[in-house]
Amino acid sequence: MSLVERIAQADELGLAVSGLACLDRCVPLLGGDDEVLRPLWAGLSVDADPGDWPEQLARVRDTFDQCGGDEAVTLAHRMLEAAPAERSAGDLRPWADASSVAALRIHRLLDGADPAEDPADAVDAPREGRTDGMSPLVAAELRRQVTVLEVLSVHGPAGLRRALEVTTEGRRVLRAALSRRSRRDG
Would you say 109 and 93 are in contact if contact means Cβ atoms under 8 Å apart? Predict the structure, then answer.
């Protein structure tokens, strides 16, 4: 099953976690520490009040400066700003889908993508299951996105811990890619 199909079939929790996980893996671009999104993760637990999401989201948004940056930073900021205040499947589905695209584009940019290559084709094809010629960083991000959705579809709320582990690993990988890019670009 392709990533696009998984997002289309995900429930409210799966969509919230999918979008949040993509954003969390890209937090280093925003200058945030590893714990900045923790209140949103905690807000997805079984005993959390879903009504707390808008307030927690507003606090997280206030944490980050909206300063400019390169395309990858801009995509990460858009991902955060697009997060819906209402935690319903109807509001979360477009955000989860857009976050998936943004995270893959970010990883493509950090992997030194060919600027002449159409970014839509480079991201849409893997999301639809056509994975030939993917860069290693994009392939790893695609696997993480699929894993998060699989874990939640199988385990429901009990899969949150595993989804967070996968996300933490992805954040470390992105941080390493940023470091490589910084050394390369001087």
Answer: no
Cα–Cα distance between 107 and 132 in angstroms, integer? 16
- What pLDDT is attached to residue 153? 96
Q: Sign of dihedral through CA atoms 55, 60, 66, 70?
A: negative
pTM: 0.91
| Contact in structure between 29 and 159 (CB atoms under 8 Å) | no
Helix (H, G, I), strand (E, B) or coil at 134: coil
Residues 6+ apart with CB under 8 A from 81: 61
pLDDT in tens, 9-32: 999 999 999 999 999 999 999 988
Ramachandran category for residue 112: left, alpha or beta (phi over 0 → left; psi -120 to 50 → alpha): left
Structure tokens at 86: 């209402």
Q: Rounded distance, CA 3 to CA 22, Å?
A: 13
Is the distance from CB of 14 to CB of 149 less than 8 angstroms? Answer: yes
The model's pLDDT over 108-143, given as tens digits with 9 standing for 90+, comes to 999 876 555 656 666 776 677 766 777 889 989 999
Q: What are phi and psi of 64, to 5 degrees?
A: -105, 140
Tokens 């997002």 map to which residue? 7
Distance CA 45, CA 13 (A): 9
